[in-house]
Amino acid sequence: MLKNKPVKNIFLIGESGSGKSSLINLMTNYFRNGELKKPKISIPTRFYKTTEEFGSCENNLNNTKDSKTTQCFCYTYKFEGIILNIFDSPGLNDTRGIKQDEANIQLILNKIIEIGEISSIVIVINGTTPRLSVNIINFLVKIKGNFPDSVLSSICFMLTNCWGNDSNFDITSLKQYLKPDDINLFYVNNSMFSQNPYLIKDSSWKRLQNDWDDCMDVIKNLILYIIRVGSVSSEDFKIIRECRNTIKAQFHQAKLQLVFLLKAHDEIIFAKAQLEFHLNGKQTFENYTQNKEVDSITLVGAKYYSTICSNCNTVCHDDCRITETVNIGSNIFQGCVCMTSSGCKECPMKCGPRDHYHDCLTTKKEKKTLTFILNDIKDQYDLAVKGEKESRAKIDTAENSMKTIEGVIKQKGLSIVGNCKKIKEICSGFNFVDELNCLIKQMELESASFVNIKVRCESDEFIRSLKTLVEYL
Question: What Gene3D superfamilies does the record point to (predicted)?
Answer without folding.
Answer: P-loop containing nucleotide triphosphate hydrolases
